[in-house]
Amino acid sequence: MSGKYQTVIGVEIHVELTTKTKLFCSCAVDFEAKPNTRTCPVCLAMPGTLPVLNAKALEYGIRAGLALNCQISERSIFERKNYFYPDLPKGFQDSQLHQPLSHDGYVEINTNGGKKRIRIHRAHIEGDTARLLHTGEGEIDESLTSFVDFNRSCMPLIEIVTYPDMRSVEEMRAYYETVKSIMQYIEVSDCDMEKGQFRIEANVSLRAVDNPEITTERTEIKNLNSIRYATRAVEYEIKRHTKALESGRTLTMETRLFDVNKGVTRAMRSKEEAHDYRYFPEPDLVPVEPDRDWVEEIRRNLPELPDARRQRFMDEYDLPEHDATLLVSDKKLADYYESCVKSYSNPKTVSNWVLNELLALLSNARQNIDECKITPEHFAGMMKLVDDGTISGKIAKTVYEEMFNTAKMADVIVKEKGLLQIADEAEIARIVEQVMAENPGPVQDYRDGKKKAMGFLIGQVMKATKGKANPQLVNKIFGEKL
């Protein structure tokens, strides 16, 4: 982006709540169910049916609002957001605009310049739309056929709307990750984007740095099902808005889609304002007036949040900030780490294995941490073999990967694969002598003061023993013989 212009980004995040039933009926919330098998006359909007608010969804909404530092409204109302679309059986969505459940909050994100506060305008609860499934080539507006799955209709969700406080895609990413982590920590959602449990929409505009009155019309980018796509879409919009300002063109306020194959956004429809939806109070739902004592009880029972946990990891486990930040970014990962520390009380060693080895294995296998076969007991058993000299650190990596793939205990793997460390001093001395005889050049280099030659010689011993030689003994014997 040109230095003459400032990016202005606001974000709307939709979080599906993990209640057992939907927002206004008793249908089960089941993301894995076959299409149109979790429906009833209420969520299908049959004539004569009436909605009843899910108390647990209300509790989760309050919990989320408190975790986002919002004020919980003493009185909020549901309103009908009127528009016609195939995924909306009622012809309107029950939402909250003028009197939301919570409002005026904030989250703090980490940026290169330090902490930055992103203000939250409101965080309200609403019933989700149904899900449209499209066939054919291209994007939604190019599909040949669309099917409607009403299982998602009226699922409870929270919509979190920010003020336009973000100035870069990096800040947008940091905000997204922060909110996702908070929602997972307070256990109101699993935030699985592949299941549509955590969806992001971005509003983008540009303004001149030296004259804020020179600005582009805001565009909203919808249907962003990953932070990677959201980043690419916003980057494209920044370039598009910059070109418009440079050329003097006027952009229209509109909603756009991101074409993931072409890497461009494309106009979907002109951007609606609130009056276009003809909001009016939902006559079938009473106003929500949560008891203040209940709200304070929910506040007292909030779990440890990511920022507090990161600080505790640094204080209690003496971890560097980098390690602590990565570990607490995912609640399940942080829980797993602490379980491993309870089984093997060397926090930094555990951190190294989790962040370096485990995350790589999970990524390659496309698995989540809750699918990991390496239990804390598996890990502790492997580290015991390293500590008592049964296997080397290098062999431990082989054992770790095998545990990941098979769920076998470390001692079983070592026995089956013959991975016992060579700790016989006479045997290692024979191999050292053989390596020295075969590599007179590096031996002489070391004796001439080129200490790096030792690393090469040790490497040859480890190669000859397939990594089984005890490293401490190898170093000791080389030291004696050189």
Fold topology:
Layout: E1 5-16, H1 55-67, E2 71-72, E3 79-82, E4 92-95, E5 102-111, E6 114-127, E7 131-135, E8 145-149, E9 156-162, H2 169-185, E10 198-208, E11 219-224, H3 227-247, E12 254-259, E13 264-270, E14 280-281, H4 292-300, H5 306-316, H6 321-328, H7 331-343, H8 347-365, H9 376-387, H10 393-406, H11 410-417, H12 425-438, H13 440-447, H14 453-464, H15 471-481
Parallel strand pairs: 11-12
Antiparallel strand pairs: 1-9, 1-10, 2-5, 3-4, 3-14, 5-6, 6-9, 7-8, 10-11, 12-13
Helix pairs in contact: 2-3, 5-6, 7-8, 7-9, 9-10, 12-14, 12-15, 13-14, 14-15
What does this structure look like?
The chain is about 40% helix and about 20% strand. By secondary structure, it is an alpha+beta fold. It folds into three domains: about 5-295, no CATH class; about 305-415, no CATH class; about 425-480, Arc Repressor Mutant, subunit A (Orthogonal Bundle), CATH 1.10.10.410. The protein has a nine-stranded mixed β-sheet. The chain has a three-stranded antiparallel β-sheet with strand order 4-3-14, with no helix packed on it. Strands 7-8 form a two-stranded antiparallel sheet. Helix 12 crosses helix 14 and helix 14 (about 455-465) packs across helix 15. The longest helix is centred in the middle third of the chain and has 21 residues, at about 225-245. It starts with a strand and ends with a helix.
